[in-house]
Design a protein that fits this description.
Length: 272
């Protein structure tokens, strides 16, 4: 795998999946701008790990749900790096700012979800492409099940917002293809040290057990490093002809059929 990129921006890069992505890029010698919203200490800790991996970068505060702040973020990137080879749109708003069921969600919470995803990506890609050389890489971190199912009612705002993000990635893939800039989406499954951290401990354990019992064929949750590996792969020279795609990084969880009992899908789980 050959990565020639020199400079990357990872929004929401201070913790969890964002940190995993930043560190995998740093291992390939890419300097990383680490965006954060509130937790400056975690962002600085990630930067220390980036430097320990042999790269460099800087931390920058911005609320990606605010277009003016996104524009300010990219001005800082331009001032620090001069150009940008990789843009990873990973940031999302805190769970409490959007988490309400379909029949009750307020328009404020709906707007917050959409602004932090679709609008942020719309503005971000335009800003990134203005300072990105031909052959650059743009990657949106999404969550495909949130837009495919309707059972997780309180996630309706973010589910719809992630679906919009995926659609935008396809449109931008076509728009930027003449410049050799690829635009793809990465859809993680359940990942340790991620949004799970905001859930009550019994709920987290229930999720772990659910997937270890077979709903993820690999019998484990993902890690930030797993997602970072997928992003690094898409940033490689060898991935230059892959664009407009949604890549599931979920240990096979998306292959399981929720309408069919698990023992039927996993015969080895049936009693003897």
């Amino acid at each position: 795998m050959t990565i020639t990129a020199r400079y990357a921006l990872v929004t929401g890069g201070s913790r969890g999946i964002g940190r995993g992505i930043a560190l995998k890029l740093a291992e390939q010698g890419v300097h990383v701008a680490i965006n954060y919203l509130k937790d400056e200490a975690s962002a600085k800790s990630t930067l220390e790990q980036v430097r320990a991996a042999g790269a460099d970068g800087f931390v920058v505060q911005a609320d990606v749900a605010q277009p003016a702040q996104v524009e300010r973020l990219f001005r800082r990137v331009r001032d620090e790096f001069g150009s940008l080879d990789v843009f990873v749109a990973n940031a999302r708003t805190d769970i409490g700012t959007f988490y309400e069921p379909a029949m009750a969600i307020s328009l404020d919470k709906w707007d917050t979800a959409m602004d932090s995803q679709a609008k942020a990506f719309l503005v971000g890609v335009r800003e990134a492409s203005a300072i990105m050389p031909d052959g650059g890489r743009i990657i949106a971190i999404t969550y495909a099940p949130g837009g495919r199912y309707g059972g997780w009612q309180s996630r309706v705002g973010m589910g719809a917002a992630k679906s919009a993000l995926e659609v935008l990635a396809r449109y931008f893939a076509v728009a930027l293809a003449p410049r050799g800039i690829t635009v793809n989406s990465v859809s993680p499954g359940w990942v340790e040290d991620s949004v799970m951290n905001a859930l009550p401990a019994p709920v987290v354990q229930m999720i772990r057990d659910h997937h270890k019992n077979g709903w993820t064929p690999m019998r484990r949750l993902g890690t930030p490093a797993d997602i970072g590996n997928a992003v690094a792969l898409l940033c490689s020279k060898e991935a230059g002809f892959i664009t407009g795609q949604l890549i599931a990084v979920d240990g096979g969880a998306g292959l399981m059929d929720p309408a069919v009992p698990l023992p039927i899908q996993q015969p080895e789980l049936q009693p003897a």
